Fold this protein.
Amino acid sequence: MGEGNEPPRPLTRRGLENLVAFTRRFGNVRYFHPSAQAAAADWETLALAGVQTAEKAGSPEELACALEELFRWVAAPELQPPVKPEGFEPSGNDRASRLADVVLAWNVFQHFYPYFDVVQADWPAELRRALAAAATDADERAFLITLRRLVAALHDGHGNVTLSSQEAAGALPLLWDVVAGGLTVTQVAGGAGELRPGDEVLAIDGRPARQVLAAEEALASAATEGWRRRRALTRLLGGKRGEAVRLDARHPGGAAFTVNVTRSLSLYGEGSLREARPEKIAEVKPGIFYVDLDRISDDDFRSALDRLAAAQGIVFDLRGYPRNLSMIVIAHLTDRPVTSARWAVPVVTRPDRQGWEWESSDWSVQPAEPRLAGKIAFVSDGRTISYGETYLGIVEHYRLAEIVGAPTAGTNGNINPFTLPGGYRVVWTGMRVLKHDGSRHHGIGIRPTVPVSRTLQSVAAGRDELLEKAIEVVSQ
């Protein structure tokens, strides 16, 4: 244990009540005290000192005196006593640091998260759970789980917590999905042993696969079930590079087997296993083109524009994130200006989200020539999130194309990341987004006009049923 690190121990009932009271007071003073001293205060150190001071108060009266003394340090930081040994670095391996991180994180969401009116989270109860868990977490990894569980209660598809010292470096050489109720292998790379697409994974390191997946889903912040599942499936692939995982599986015909698979690939980016798709711009049948918006740039699109303008039909694949693409595709699908969804930023002047007003805006896309006159379809599923939903929201409202596949992630708006002492990075949504007609987008997302789901037969045969259906739609 590092110098100054405090070992885990449970909170007493009095200690928990004290920390809840401190947390509420801390947020009110930090964000709403109208003084220059409050704006300049070292709030991380104050949180660390505060949890140690508040927890040991023996009565409400003693707590009130302790908090009054504590918050005097805001105006006179030179009076603040040392809270840990000189040179101490906050860490998830230290009990006080963990409690302070809960105080810091909970207050950000309490005062600024824009979706409590639709997600129905019991946020005061989540504070108690997180404080109790943080007090007894064994180490920084266990506390990462506590923070993820806290953020998961927001039902925010952008919501996530990572730890700089615990980033997953490797991934299993396969992809999987839930098909017909079972955890099903959908693609394999070298090193997957006898696993094949269509195999059902029954157990992971001896634990039932459905139980393992459900536990991971409980830690995944999401506004829709589709995004929650996608996130959990990806996390289950990741872990320490070179680590072996035992999978008990069953072939489609019923033969069971066990295979040890090593996390030999990257979880994200270069070296990761990508879903099998056509080339990023491809003529998949005479007169019918496929365009993967997850992989193309504006320059790629411009280079193919003449061919696309002459196409009978085009399938745009949005099962991913169009990170290198402007609204150029939308501009060539319309003959009149179109607008985005409605962005709303809260104007926060009082604690606990009281009296919020909103600064609302949108932006427009001007039409561009040539217009793509062939029949158009977009492919979507639970991976279509944020900017991808901005694309599809315009398509949906102006009826620019058919939408084939499954509902999107139901999460849009700018993210607002922050860091916590100990190396934790928290991401969340700081903006409310409404559909063009003013109705709710969060947790609803974009629904397909042509719903399609995967089947075991198609997975085993290496077929992409969503893409096949989209090609059929634009070929009619």
Notes: The first helix runs from residue 13 to 32.
